[in-house]
Specification:
By secondary structure, the chain is of the alpha/beta class. The chain is built from eight helices and ten strands. Helix 4 packs parallel to helix 8 (about 210-225).
Length: about 230
């Protein structure tokens, strides 16, 4: 990812943070443009920018097959996270962050009716989006079936899953973890494609967890089970 321009809002405090931005932009010979705060709000779709923003090229999505290839190159059993119609980019960013932190080889999102790698998703990933690929699938159900045909097992997170997460005996093999949408969970076709539906045990009768939180918990547990 190559930055093109750095924008600084007029009146932004020249603190150590901003001085570091100036130092890095000078080293990289990047142009710095001062704009009004209103202009920066418009350019960032009113994201929380703290007075500084950077223009970068559009995000380049990986191909879903790139994720299994990365696992093969690392000589590791594949671990892929697939998001079923998750529409909040902050949830996508949180999943990308957890996927990078717990050894997944990438994240797959549908092309339509789902969040993409927007500025909000990138920010929520806390930089992890630069370290782990995100792929787009034209049809998520077909892609899951393709993964299954190549030897991966498909495990979908569901509140009414038949297997408790700590008892997931598929964790140490090639695996796709599917996380459902914020409101409806797994769609019918995706649920039917899963080899197993997995529930996260909870102490209360809370109906569901935020998609980003659920993915983080599941990825931690899968990472722990793989280390046994």
């Amino acid at each position: 990812m190559l930055a093109r321009t750095v924008y600084v809002a007029e009146g932004t405090e020249r603190d150590d943070r901003l001085r570091e931005v100036f130092r890095l932009t000078s080293e990289q010979r990047l142009p710095i443009t001062e704009v009004t705060r209103g202009e920066l709000d418009r350019m960032t779709s009113r994201a929380v920018h703290q007075g500084v923003a950077m223009r970068v090229p559009a995000y380049e999505y990986a191909h879903p097959d790139d994720l299994t290839a990365a696992a093969a190159d690392a000589d590791e059993p594949a671990l892929i996270v697939a998001l079923d119609s998750v529409t909040d980019p902050r949830n996508l960013g949180a999943v990308v962050r957890s996927a990078a932190g717990f050894g997944a080889h990438g994240v797959v999102v549908p092309e339509r009716r789902a969040a993409g790698m927007t500025a909000s998703a990138w920010k929520s990933s806390a930089g992890a989006a630069a370290r782990i690929p995100v792929a787009r699938a034209t049809n998520l159900t077909r892609q899951l079936k393709a993964y299954a045909e190549s030897g991966l097992m498909i495990a979908g997170l569901a509140a009414d899953g038949e297997v408790s997460l700590p008892e997931l005996d598929l964790a140490d093999g090639p695996l796709v973890l599917v996380v459902g949408s914020e409101g409806k969970g797994l769609s019918r076709l995706v649920a039917e494609t899963c080899d197993v539906r997995v529930a996260i045990p909870m102490a209360t009768e809370l109906e569901s967890l935020n998609a980003g939180v659920a993915a983080g918990i599941a990825l931690y547990e899968i990472s722990r089970l793989r280390a046994l």
